[in-house]
Task: structure prediction
Amino acid sequence: MVINKKYRALGTIIDLTVYNSVDEKLLDEAYELIKEYEDKLTVNRTSSEIMNINHASGRDEVSVSEISYKIVKRAIEISQKELGFNALIGPVVKLWHIGFVDAEVPQTMEVAQRLALTNPFSVVLNDKKRTVFLQKKGMELDLGGIAKGYIADAIKDYWIKQHIERGIINLGGNVLLVGDPARESRLWNVGIQSPFSQRNEPLGILKTGDYSVVTSGIYERFLKIDGKEYHHIFNPKTGYPVANDLASVTVITKKSIDGEIWASIGFYNGIRGTMNLFNRKDDIGIIFTTKSKKVYITRNIAESFKITNQDYFLEADSVLQ
Result:
């Protein structure tokens, strides 16, 4: 038996599916877990544990729950590697406000002022007290680039403890698979979103086991002024949208949180730069799609991914070592 339910949370549609179960409460309990995490981690409300940290910036350290501290610590550690993911990018994101009616292109001086508040080394973590201190007034944590993955992994762990043998967790473009489908290949078929088509129109199909599939793209939120488009994926060093030919990055990993991080790294570093960091990690696959509709894939998924949309093409030199 298949049970599927849709919910609204995290600013998107949550789509949960379990197989071989008649217990609908497993979906509802997963949704309650999502809401619990969102209540702690969101920056889209005036009050949450993360907002408490932001409100106290430059003034006080703030004690948070184990859930919040764990993700904040991971986010800061990754940010300090300066690979393209920065959990302190919040002031820049709010300045541009792309995706909202008041979005605008800010003045150069405004961008520079906000960038001064995004240094991940200006965060003090205390493991013993589980406190977080943002040292400069105006600094803000924004976990939007990592929270969905963190929450998806938590749902999967919960389902496994509840003996769910197979299921699908879809948090609005962040897909995490549990177990394997009931077919001979024991592989799932996952459609990879086409950046230039309507939602649910794939550019290709990926065959995969119980992995996470995270896609990040420039096509869902953007600002168009005087014929120029500005997307919502920012370069943490310049404070402006990342400037390269990429339209989307899809990352296949065991842990969804790793997929979120690598998607940010992929956009920031571009195809060649990312591959220099990739170091042939067998447990990570990446699909890059360019604005010219050319697709590049890492060699470890070359036999698992097939383009099905005739508008896209994979050339002979597009399989990355």
